[in-house]
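Document type: protein sequence-to-structure record

Subject area: structural biology

Format: plain text, a pair of labelled lines:
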Amino acid sequence: MLICGECSTRNNDGESFCANCGAYLVWQGEQEKPSKNAKAGQEADPGDGKTVLMPKVPAPPDHGPASQRGTRMDQPSSVPRVTRLPGTFLDEEAAGVIRAEKPLKPVPGDTAEPPPEVKPGRRTTPLETGPPPPRDETPPAPGELICGRCGAGNNRERHYCRRCAASLDEAAVVPPLPWWRRLASPRPKAPLPAGTRPKRKRRHFPVRLVGFLAVLGVLGGAAYAGRATIDTAVAQVQDRFLSSDRRANSVTASSSQPDRLPGFAIDTFNDRSWAAGVAGNTGDQYLDFVFEREFRLTQIVISSGASKDSNIFIKERRPLNVEVTAGRADGQPTTERFELKDVPETQSFYIAADRVTAVRLMILDSTGPEEAPVAIAEVQFLGR
């Protein structure tokens, strides 16, 4: 573990730049737990589990005789150190050597020639890309930050790139793999401890992939076995949301009162009703509805009695049990029986009959005054 000398952040071994401040760890970092037997500039024994010390940076070499080098900075000198004055600069030809100061502007009365004119050099383009990645480096893993300069992958906790020290504030995150690729991809392996060798590679049985295929097979078999139930459920959902009002072109009745015609049962008014031509509970009265086009009959809505007004409702007979026969174009009718509540409200019943062209509503049983005929205020049909 390397500790940054600038911000004291802990960094993993082998990192070149600090994850928090981007300082170069070779110059600014130090080991957290150095080996007791290791000396400066030496490596510890790898077998004792200690970390390796970083080498010290050597001082710049000396070149030439002492008369040409001048006075070393780390040696005492009789030459006084000159303090920089405004308008002057220090001319240093070698490391540690202090030269006499030269004026930047000519002093009045000075006959010295001005320095030669320096022309601007050729403009260079700054380096836009970082160092190339090593050949053995793995691509960025999902969830890591991609450096926009060199493309290296970094942990989400880092603020500067581990390879080129570029800022990661606006770095993009590697998106996770799709679920179908995660099923076939191998699981990430834990890093081996130092000093151990990887074991011989063996082919592992794809448990996740086989399990996923087995679950798909079981679900497919269950769907095939219960396909009839599934089709019925799908049809019911479609009937519930896709049905609309279907009006009959004509209607006839077994019998009717002179002023209570069968057409009153489909006129969309609840204050007018059809009434049978005979009084009492006969059990043989019916209404026949004919449609122009065949359709799928999903629901039938019945308003029982002469009116929704409760005072008028109780004065005449009301149907209690009815039989609905939906005639098909191919001659195979669908028959359903329904029980109505003795209330002045509309009541809906689900039928689900295909290719319907005609419907017969037969009254099997009724209730109310014996001297009054049975009446129905309104009959509506829904289908798709």
Observations:
- The first strand starts at residue 2 and ends at 4.
